[in-house]
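Annual report, structural modelling task.

Input specification for the NAP complex:
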Amino acid sequence: MGQMMKGKTAIVTGASRGIGKALACSAAGLGINLAIAARQYEPLKAAADDISAKYGVKVLPVAADVTKLEDLQNLVKKTREEFGRIDILINNAGVSSQYPFQQQPIEDFEKLVYTNYLGYVRMIRLVIEDMIKNRSGAVINMVSGSTLCDPIPRNFLVYSSLKVGLRAFSKGLFWELRDYGIKVTSILPGVTDTDLTGKLSDITADASRLMSTEAIENAVKFALTVPANVCPLEISVINQQTPWTAPVIPFKQQHPGK
Ligand SMILES: NC(=O)c1ccc[n+]([C@@H]2O[C@H](COP(=O)([O-])OP(=O)(O)OC[C@H]3O[C@@H](n4cnc5c(N)ncnc54)[C@H](OP(=O)(O)O)[C@@H]3O)[C@@H](O)[C@H]2O)c1
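The model returned the following structure:
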């Protein structure tokens, strides 16, 4: 199945580190050429060099801030110029802001909306005509396991409610685009050990309790390699044991073994 992906082109946003870099690696492992994006060019270029050396695919680093429409347009233009087509979009760039609502800096709202919601919808709009023309394509949106909670977790209200909106949008988009052969998949990761969550390793002595990106990489590989007439609409990858952390969720969760 992976063979079918060889030589295709994917854009991965937020791919200089964390989940995005891990997903770029798993796509590269399937032989997919990549355009990767993040705001800071140096770490992005280092990630591109690293991935192309390891997997032997072409990796184009494009500095882009997903909150800026002109940066997204430039990312799509550069990808078309370099590869001639866009088959896969992995929408992943995201930021967090964890506060009790009444203490949350008011300027964080705009940053969250533009990065975690509008950045995703705009990117899809910019690539969708290529996919419709090809009568095939895959869009993968990095949502969040927090959307499975109702009510959504405390101290995460703006972040999580935008992810709920993104999840709803993704599902609707699948129905709207499926007749064009385009797949739309939401990934719902649990708390994963990346810069976004802070240093989880500081709050547990037992590193084996932390969820790494590995299962998320496998979920995306699965989404990209299922038979052509199947679409995994949503994949939840929730951690079994990572302890909830203050201030993320301020209540105690006992270790299952205790
Ligand atoms: N980690 C978790 O526990 C977890 C759980 C559920 C969902 N998620 C979601 O997974 C995605 C990735 O999270 P992560 O944990 O891997 O975060 P991370 O380690 O902080 O990495 C974020 C990536 O996005 C880029 N980025 C941030 N803002 C950007 C912007 N405005 N424009 C372009 N690139 C931007 C960063 O590079 P620059 O700073 O250079 O731009 C970096 O490459 C996010 O959408 C997040 O909401 C994470």
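Helices lie at 18-29, 41-55, 69-83, 107-134, 157-177, 214-225.
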